[in-house]
Amino acid sequence: MQILFLGTSGSWPTPKRNVSAVAVRRGPEVILFDCGEGTQRQFMMSPMSFMQVTRIFVTHFHGDHFLGIPGLVQSMTMGDRKAPLELYGPRGMKELVRQLLSLGYFTPGFDVPVRDLSGGDVVDFGEYVIGALEAVHTVPALSYVLEEKERTGRFDKERALALGIPEGPLYRRLQEGQPVAVGGKTFTPDQVLGPPRRGRKIVYTGDTMPSEALVEFAHGADVLIHDATAESSLEEKANRYGHSTARQAALVAKDAGVGTLVLTHVSPRYEDAAPILADAKTVFENSILAEDFFLLDVPYPL
């Protein structure tokens, strides 16, 4: 799994940062969280393709988080896309997308199913789920968690051989949860597999102030991608507009016991965002300041 930061600026683009868009590549698919203007061009300058995007999750309806949707859909159509593109967002998403895709003189060449979500909703995609939390912002907004389901335990080859199970296709069947028969004896997966292993967990807050609900939502996440619009000296102003400071993001990360904190949605006032990172590191050392095109690998937990 990899996380690609396509846009890391808040409110409007700057010469160095585009507006919000975060892509998560998991196997052959790409899941996009937010889609600020120009996202398809950011993809073109990155190691990922926008044609691989299967689903888009929009956090809220401020323009820097969704205005890239019409251009992205049009570019996909011109690329002869046929696969559906699923869109999710807060209440009103269906109507917003209807309006966005009626702009200009083009019709998408593929299906674009849309679903409105509320806090507490969880969408099951088989190997992983994506859940929503009501964020604390100036308009209705959601934070999202992508959480993989448990994986099977590690296969104990020495144990299998000791039981008399020969190497080969029987091992795969056991790893897939099926019993096998050898020499008139039946062996079950629990005899050769260790305890189930948890999957990876990524949380993307979108625009939000910190909250206890967010701490619980992000508990134990491998990666927390958090709104860090400003440094602590501007906390009152940041909170007034429904945003967090880097220090507040770091406190959420610390209290939630996350592995890595990635700071994003940096105010355009910062030509040099080093103070943002320094602010967070005073509280949570494993903090990273995202730049456009920063690519983060997320390995399976040990």
At the first level of CATH, what is the class of the largest domain?
Alpha Beta
Task: Spell out the helices and strands N to C.
Answer: EEEHEHEHEEEEHHEEEHEHHEHEE
Helix content: 10-25%
Number of domains as seen in the coordinates: 2
Name the CATH homologous superfamily of the largest domain.
Answer: Ribonuclease Z/Hydroxyacylglutathione hydrolase-like
**Average pLDDT over all residues:** 96
β-strand percent reads: 15-25%
Form type: globular
Main sheet? 7 strands, mixed
In which order are the strands of the major sheet placed? 6-5-4-3-2-1-16
The CATH level-2 architecture of the largest domain is identified as: 4-Layer Sandwich
Instruction: Find the CATH topology of the largest domain.
Output: Metallo-beta-lactamase, Chain A
- Please count the beta strands (DSSP E, at least 2 residues each): 16
Structural class determined from secondary elements: alpha/beta
What Rg is obtained from the alpha carbons, in whole angstroms?
22 Å
Number of helices: 9
| Termini gap | 15 Å
Outline the secondary-structure elements.
Elements: E1 2-7, E2 21-26, E3 29-33, H1 39-44, E4 53-57, H2 69-78, E5 86-90, H3 93-100, E6 114-117, E7 122-124, E8 128-134, E9 142-148, H4 157-162, H5 169-175, E10 180-182, E11 185-187, E12 201-204, H6 212-217, E13 223-227, H7 235-240, H8 246-256, E14 260-264, H9 274-281, E15 287-289, E16 295-297
Parallel strand pairs: 3-4, 4-5, 5-6, 12-13, 13-14, 14-15
Antiparallel strand pairs: 1-2, 1-16, 2-3, 7-8, 8-9, 9-12, 10-11
